[in-house]
Specification:
This protein has 337 residues and is of the alpha/beta class. It contains 12 helices and 10 strands. α9 links the parallel β8 and β9. Belongs to the class I fructose-bisphosphate aldolase family.
Length: 337
């Protein structure tokens, strides 16, 4: 039998290449309303639609952001939202030459039969949602599932994570959205870097096994892995060089060169740490574009600087641009601090 290629095949390849372009990476600004509420609470703001809109307006309209940022991942509310000046957020991004993306998973719930682990919901109805998101201007998608090292991971949790990602990737490609494949291996735990490496090898082996089984076109996906680091509570810390060595070894063993881009999450690393680690990975040529898809490591200082005050918008945008530029340089292996 033959497998029907997505009618969007050429467009998917083009979109993925655009996002994985030299010196650019992704701004993850797709915090769910619950997570966005936590961020707003940290600066003493209420979790209202107006506050979320004001903050996201600040992000998408930072002048010249598109020089460093090739894609922005949005939460569904933002995809359909206008800025405080009444322009569609999506249009502002496109004017900045930033590809709009959409978080399509429906979040994590407990996985019965596992060791207190979780699984990711959102496959039911995904095909029609993906078509509507494409209509609204989204050209790529994200599905974040997690694997916990202290809680196992159990074989069941890894298999479920990999299978869910593969089904989502196939459905997204069928609707013209480039899927970002994100099995986040959580930083929590006391384990050392070798244990993270071992788990990551297992996770990525299963993810690619099921991606292949679901006939996903590798040239039209992007990956969003965790860097290989020691657990957050491990007493041994790793240098950027060690993180780069372990992470590149993992990618070389598990990721086919057909995949155009590997866009790391920051996962709770500090802003500077995330930049230094990315820079270390780009000191020699790689088969894939190695870049960033950071939320916290791009936004932390920006959010604090803003503090919900209109008079601080410009200063906050400047701090966002500082982080975006630093990571752009790190993508090129040219960050010097
Ligand atoms: P962090 O960079 O804050 O880990 O967030 C990236 C992301 O989008 C996780 O899904």
């Amino acid at each position: 039998f033959t497998v029907r290629a997505s009618s969007y095949a050429d467009e998917l390849v083009k979109t993925a290449k655009t996002i994985a372009s030299p010196g650019r990476g992704i701004l993850a600004m797709d915090e769910s309303n619950a997570t966005c509420g936590k961020r707003l609470a940290s600066i003493g703001l209420e979790n209202t639609e107006a506050n979320r809109q004001a903050y996201r307006t600040l992000l998408v309209s930072a002048p010249g952001l598109g020089e460093y940022i090739s894609g922005a991942i949005l939460f569904e509310e933002t995809l359909y939202q206008s800025t405080i000046d009444g322009k569609k957020m999506v249009d502002v991004l496109v004017e900045q030459k930033i590809v709009p993306g959409i978080k399509v998973d429906k979040g994590l719930v407990p996985l019965p039969g596992s060791n207190n682990e979780s699984w990711c919901q959102g496959l039911d109805g995904l095909s029609s949602r993906a078509a509507a998101y494409y209509q609204q201007g989204a050209r790529f998608a994200k599905w974040r599932t997690v694997v916990s090292i202290p809680n196992g991971p159990s074989a069941l949790a890894v298999k479920e994570a990999a299978w869910g990602l593969a089904r989502y990737a196939a459905i997204s490609q069928d609707s013209g959205l480039v899927p970002i494949v994100e099995p986040e291996i959580l930083l929590d735990g006391e384990h050392g870097i070798d244990r993270t490496f071992e788990v990551a090898q297992k996770v990525w082996a299963e993810v690619f096994f099921y991606l292949a089984e679901n006939n996903v076109m590798f040239e039209g996906i992007l990956l969003k892995p965790s860097m290989v680091t020691p657990g957050a509570e491990c007493k041994d810390k790793a240098t950027p060089q060690q993180v780069a060595d372990y992470t590149l070894k993992l990618l070389h063993r598990r990721i086919p060169p057909a995949v155009p881009g590997v866009m790391f999450l920051s996962g709770g690393q500090s802003e500077v740490e995330a930049t230094l680690n990315l820079n270390a990975m780009n000191q020699s040529p790689n088969p894939w574009h190695i870049s960033f898809s950071y939320a916290r490591a791009l936004q932390n200082t920006c959010l604090k600087t803003w503090g919900g005050r209109p008079e601080n918008v410009k200063a906050a945008q400047d701090t966002l641009l500082v982080r975006a530029k630093a990571n752009s340089l790190a993508q090129l292996g040219k960050y010097t601090g």
